[in-house]
Amino acid sequence: MQLPEGVSPTDPIFPIAAASELAGMHPQTLRQYDRIGLVVPGRTRGGSRRYSAYNIVQLQEVAKLSAEGVPLAVIQRMIDLENEVQHLRDRVRDLTQELREERETRPGARVFATNATGGVVTLTGTTRIRRQTDVVLWRPPRG
Could you give the angle at the alpha carbon of 25 between the alpha carbons of 67 and 17, nearest 5°? Predict the structure, then answer.
């Protein structure tokens, strides 16, 4: 689905009639999915549903899985897990950006990592860390 310039896939822009047509579903099905929390659109100030391009893709996927006999409860769990993964990816992106900004604004700041056994390692700009390593940014108190 091609979106206009400057429109994010998560921006709620489609009214229910357009969303139902794009998803190939009856509007009442979209309302039911909203009621049970399966695919929840954004809302206008007046309470009208507004679906994003991402919601449309979710609806199409729900229709496909449902046609294959997957129960709605299982589909709901899959959507919940996808949303959680996306949230975690966003959080990692934000923390990575925060770390980058901190390093740029405080060239002398030290960053430490801890490993699974509790060992502490000072990280430099070129140090690679393993996935299971927790990164902790220490900020000295300002004062």
Answer: 165
